[in-house]
Amino acid sequence: LSVFFQWYTPDACLQLKERFHGQVSTTCQRKNTGTVGLRHSKVVVVGDLYVGKTSLIHRFCKNVFDRDYKATIGVDFEIERFEIAGIPYSLQIWDTAGQEKFKCIASAYYRGAQVIITAFDLTDMQTLEHTRQWLEDALRENEPGSCFVFLVGTKKDLLSGAACAQAEVEAVRLANEMQAEYWSVSAKTGENVKAFFSRVAALAFEQSVLQDSERRSSARLQVGDGDLIR
C-alpha cells in the first residue's frame, strides 16, 4: 500500500483525511519505524453466528468463498502481510465464534486488540442490533480508546440497491453511536473486501508508527537528571 485508503462513507468514518500523517510519511521515508515491521497488529472480528465473519476473512486472506457453512469452533486466526509506504506490516486477524457457548473462550482472545470489527448481516437487521453487545464485550477486555472500531455489513450481494441503501441508513446511525467506521461488503463477490482491509491496515499502521515514535522519544530521556540516553 502506497496510499492512505479512503473511507466507505463520510457519514460514518474514523478519519476524513486523505493521506498519512506527515510524521508517519517522514518516518517511513527515512526507514526509521523501529519495531513496527516486526510486530503483528491484532484485529478481532466479532458478531452473530451466520453473519459471514469467516467468509469475509477467507475472501481477503485466501481470495476464496466457500458456500458450505462451517461454524467456527472457539477462535481461529489468519496473518496477512502488507508493505505500507515501503515498510513491512502484518495484521493478525482473529475469527471468533458467534455461538453463545463459545463466548467465554472467545472473550479471552479479545485482549490486546488494536482493531475491533463488528459484523452483521445486511439481510437480517436483528444482527445489527446485536452488534452493540458484541462491541461492549470486546471493548471490556481492552483499554478505553485503544481500539479502532469498524461496523461491517456483510452479504451486500443479496440486497437490491434500494434495500441496501435503507439498511445502510440504520447501520450508519448505529456506527456513529458506536464511534465506529461503517462499511458494506460482499464476501461472495469480493466487493469492497480488499478496500476495507486495506483501510484497516492503513489506520492501524499509522497508529503503530506514531506510538512507536512516541515511545522511542520518551526512552531517550533519562529519568531523574534529564540527560539523553545514547
What is the element layout, followed by pairings?
Layout: H1 22-29, E1 40-47, H2 53-62, E2 75-84, E3 87-96, H3 103-107, E4 115-121, H4 125-140, E5 148-154, H5 161-178, E6 181-184, H6 193-219
Parallel strand pairs: 1-3, 1-4, 4-5, 5-6
Antiparallel strand pairs: 2-3
Cofactor: Mg(2+)
Protein name: Ras-related protein Rab-36
Membrane topology: Lipid-anchor
Quick structural overview:
It is a lipid-anchor. This protein has 230 residues and is of the alpha/beta class. The protein has one domain (22-219): 3-Layer(aba) Sandwich (Rossmann fold).
Through-space gap between termini: 34 Å
Envelope shape: globular
Order of helices and strands: HEHEEHEHEHEH
CATH architecture: 3-Layer(aba) Sandwich
What name goes with the CATH superfamily? P-loop containing nucleotide triphosphate hydrolases
CATH structural class: Alpha Beta
Instruction: Work out the radius of gyration.
Output: 18 Å
Strand coverage percent: 15-25%
Helix-strand category: alpha/beta
Report the biggest beta sheet as strand number plus sense, adding barrel if it closes.
Answer: 6 strands, mixed
> What is CATH's topology name?
Rossmann fold
- As for the number of domains, it is 1
Uncertain parts: none
| Number of helices, where a helix is a run of at least 4 consecutive DSSP H or I residues | 6
| DSSP E strands, number | 6
Membrane topology: Lipid-anchor
Catalytic activity: GTP + H2O = GDP + phosphate + H(+)
GO cellular component, one term: Golgi membrane
Enzyme class: hydrolase
